[in-house]
């Protein structure tokens, strides 16, 4: 009986020990020294079965604690799953390149996924890896994107993610495969292994609804917003741009309408004070607009706005954060203003571009022919522009006018450069220019300083003209010296068009031609629209106390559209009328020197010439021609201004065709 009891006790203890040993992680059999009689396997002798003799055992691992204590690092591999993965055609040694023999050393090098992917992607063998060959370019791009991401750059950081952290070491599947750890619905759990707080918030958000209620349809997961491999450090400009673009993959209309607002334009350029998507919608705890938990719900919207606009009044919540001018129901004010201003732009450009083309054609046609002899042969060609050299000049502009023109020209060029960068922020040239100036803060200061100079030049000139004319009791407000439109301007324009079509003689212009008056008053119109809207935007903290929010949308829209119209008329129509038409090409220096050659004056302004000559005033305004040095300086300065203007015109045109106006 006692013997039976001892046998039974021994059997139970042995069974318990066996169960415990089976449940415990297996110790690594890897040895640095061989047993007597054993020979190591050389690299070329190693087969997959040799590796699986250890790594194929379920539960195979090594202890990471002291003296064999947990935790354990699991080293077991499911050969079947490995063979089904995208790496299934590779042997163990293809990745573990530092194994020279078996048993191998304990500390192996980290597998270099990056170099292998780039090499394989650039020269993949289609018969071995057809999946890799078809997507080789994409593989290289994504791998290189990862090397520039925050996960790769901060390898020692707490939350750094290596390739294996996201894709696992051995069971790599395409992201479209539900078995993949980066599959759409699996990615939150994968990312949440490091970003626990964000995962907890995401699960409560509207985006996380697909994890809890998949029957309602898929929603955005981590990689939809952050991308898979372009993850940058939180708070930097590249991160904002990537996330904004990723949001647009689902919310294309909302992102497009956001990017045309002041918020979207400045945020894209790097202004950290401008509202981004996350500031209004909460990056991980996003809710429906009508949800009480949403930051932009009716109850919370003003509080959300107050985070940036501390003094904003209750009507400020009517600001259109997604200002879509094509949506009449949601944005009726923007729809009306946008429609009117775009109509003005189209009609203005059609009329004056047609005017310029007809003028160019008629002047070119009106030039007389001349005979040129080349190698003994005579050719009939159009005569070149007549260069007047009478030895006398007519003083057309005083130094005060020319100084004002310089202030106007320089301020406009500066405003166009800094303003169009904001209007077309996501163009390559805008991002390059804003980088040269170190960000939007300095750019904004330059823009506002130029705006002050521009407004002083425009309205200061107007005040000076009113003051001078008010002192002249005999001044005729609708006479030849006045810039106010009059009946003769209408007759001159009709006569000019008749001449364009060879139906009459060219009109005889007086001191101011009708196109000069258009240029003059267009500046005042533009200064009023751009000035008023710009002041509202500049001093938004003050105006937000009592103006409704949509007033700032209207200001931004009017500011940009009027500026675009100014660029497309000033740098095309004004340049042509004064410099690029055949009789003036390539440059008219009158605004730089202040005087015309007397013969050129009689040709350009016959009505004024005859009137001044009859009254005896002509001789009083005859001056010596400018010196050669003065003319040289005038040409250098003039061509510089024209060159800058034409470069800006090209950039704005590129921005228009790439991005549009609204």
Description:
The chain has a domain at 476-507. It is built from 30 helices and nine strands. It has helices spanning 2-23, 48-55, 79-84, 92-95, 113-122, 130-134, 136-147, 150-153, 163-167, 187-192, 196-204, 209-212, 222-226, 237-248, 252-259, 262-269, 277-281, 301-305, 332-366, 399-423, 428-436, 440-471, 487-500, 514-538, 540-543, 550-580, 590-593, 598-604, 606-615, 628-659; strands spanning 41-42, 61-63, 72-74, 101-102, 369-374, 377-382, 393-395, 595-597, 622-623. The strands form four sheets. A three-stranded antiparallel sheet has the order 8-7-9. The termini are far apart. The model is unreliable at 1-32 and 125-133 (pLDDT under 50).
Quaternary structure state of the chains depicted: single chain
In what range is the share of β-strand residues?
under 5%
Q: What's the mean pLDDT score?
A: 85
Rounded radius of gyration (Å): 38 Å
| Fraction of helical residues | 55-70%
- Structural class, judged by helices and strands? mainly alpha
Strand order of the largest sheet: 8-7-9
Q: For the record, give the distance between the C-alpha atoms at the N and C termini, rounded to a whole number.
A: 98 Å
Provide the low-confidence segments as ranges: 1-32, 125-133
Number of helices: 30
β-strand number: 9
Major sheet summary line = 3 strands, antiparallel
What is the overall shape? elongated
Give the arrangement of secondary structure elements:
Elements: H1 2-23, E1 41-42, H2 48-55, E2 61-63, E3 72-74, H3 79-84, H4 92-95, E4 101-102, H5 113-122, H6 130-134, H7 136-147, H8 150-153, H9 163-167, H10 187-192, H11 196-204, H12 209-212, H13 222-226, H14 237-248, H15 252-259, H16 262-269, H17 277-281, H18 301-305, H19 332-366, E5 369-374, E6 377-382, E7 393-395, H20 399-423, H21 428-436, H22 440-471, H23 487-500, H24 514-538, H25 540-543, H26 550-580, H27 590-593, E8 595-597, H28 598-604, H29 606-615, E9 622-623, H30 628-659
Helix pairs in contact: 5-7, 14-15, 19-26, 20-22, 20-26, 20-30, 22-24, 24-26, 26-30, 28-29
């Amino acid at each position: 009986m006692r013997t039976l009891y001892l046998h039974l006790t021994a059997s139970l203890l042995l069974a318990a020990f066996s169960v415990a040993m089976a449940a415990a992680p297996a110790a690594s059999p890897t040895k640095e020294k061989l047993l007597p009689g054993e020979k190591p396997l050389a690299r070329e002798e190693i087969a997959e079965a040799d590796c699986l003799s250890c790594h194929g055992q379920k539960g195979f691992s090594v202890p990471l604690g002291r003296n064999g204590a947990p935790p354990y690092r699991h080293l077991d591999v499911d050969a079947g799953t490995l063979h089904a993965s995208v790496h299934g055609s590779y042997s163990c040694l293809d990745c573990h390149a530092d194994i020279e023999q078996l048993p191998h050393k304990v500390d192996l090098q980290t597998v270099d996924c990056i170099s292998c992917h780039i090499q394989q992607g650039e020269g993949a063998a289609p018969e071995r890896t057809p999946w890799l060959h078809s997507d080789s370019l994409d593989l290289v791009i994504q791998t290189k994107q990862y090397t520039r991401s925050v996960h790769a750059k901060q390898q020692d950081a707490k939350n750094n993610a290596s390739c294996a952290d996201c894709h696992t070491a051995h069971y790599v599947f395409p992201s479209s495969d539900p078995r993949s750890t980066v599959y759409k619905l699996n990615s939150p759990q994968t990312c949440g292994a490091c970003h626990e707080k964000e995962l907890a918030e995401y699960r409560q958000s509207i985006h996380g609804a697909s994890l809890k209620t998949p029957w309602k349809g898929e929603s955005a997961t981590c990689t939809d917003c952050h991308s898979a491999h372009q993850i940058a450090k939180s708070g930097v400009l590249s991160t904002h741009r990537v996330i904004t673009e990723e949001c647009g993959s689902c919310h294309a209309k909302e992102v497009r309408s956001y990017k045309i607002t002041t918020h979207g334009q400045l945020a894209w350029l790097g202004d950290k004070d401008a509202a981004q998507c996350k500031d209004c919608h909460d990056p991980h705890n996003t809710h429906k607009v009508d949800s009480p938990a949403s930051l932009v719900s009716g109850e919370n919207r003003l509080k959300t706005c107050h985070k940036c606009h501390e003094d904003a009044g209750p009507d400020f919540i009517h600001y259109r954060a997604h200002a879509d001018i094509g949506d009449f129901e949601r944005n009726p004010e923007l729809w009306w203003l946008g429609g009117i201003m775009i109509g003005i732009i189209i009609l203005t450009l059609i009329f004056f571009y047609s005017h310029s083309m007809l003028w160019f054609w008629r002047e070119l046609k009106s030039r007389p022919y001349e005979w040129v002899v080349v190698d003994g042969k005579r050719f009939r060609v159009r005569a070149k522009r007549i260069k007047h050299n009478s030895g006398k000049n007519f003083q057309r502009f005083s130094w005060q006018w020319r100084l004002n023109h310089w202030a106007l020209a320089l301020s406009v060029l500066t405003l166009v450069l800094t303003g169009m960068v904001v209007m077309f922020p996501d163009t390559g040239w805008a991002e390059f220019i804003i980088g040269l100036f170190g960000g939007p803060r300095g750019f904004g200061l330059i823009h506002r300083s130029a705006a002050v100079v521009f407004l002083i030049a425009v309205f200061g000139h107007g005040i000076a003209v009113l003051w001078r004319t008010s002192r002249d009791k005999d001044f005729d407000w609708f006479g030849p010296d006045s810039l106010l439109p009059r009946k003769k301007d209408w007759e001159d324009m009709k006569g000019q068009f008749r001449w364009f079509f060879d139906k009459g003689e060219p009109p005889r212009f007086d001191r101011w031609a009708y196109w000069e008056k258009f240029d003059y008053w267009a500046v005042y119109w533009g200064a009023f629209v751009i000035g008023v809207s710009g002041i509202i935007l500049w001093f938004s903290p003050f105006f937000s106390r009592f103006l409704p929010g949509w007033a700032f949308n209207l200001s931004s829209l009017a500011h940009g559209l009027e500026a675009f119209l100014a660029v497309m008329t000033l740098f095309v129509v004004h340049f042509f009328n004064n410099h690029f038409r055949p009789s003036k090409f390539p440059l008219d220096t009158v605004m730089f020197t202040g005087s015309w050659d007397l013969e050129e004056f009689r040709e350009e302004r016959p009505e004024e010439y005859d009137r001044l000559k009859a009254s005896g005033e002509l001789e009083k305004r005859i001056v010596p021609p400018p010196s050669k040095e003065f003319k040289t300086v005038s040409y250098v300065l003039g061509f510089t201004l024209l060159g800058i203007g034409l470069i800006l015109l090209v950039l704005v045109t590129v921005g228009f065709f790439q991005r549009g106006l609204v």
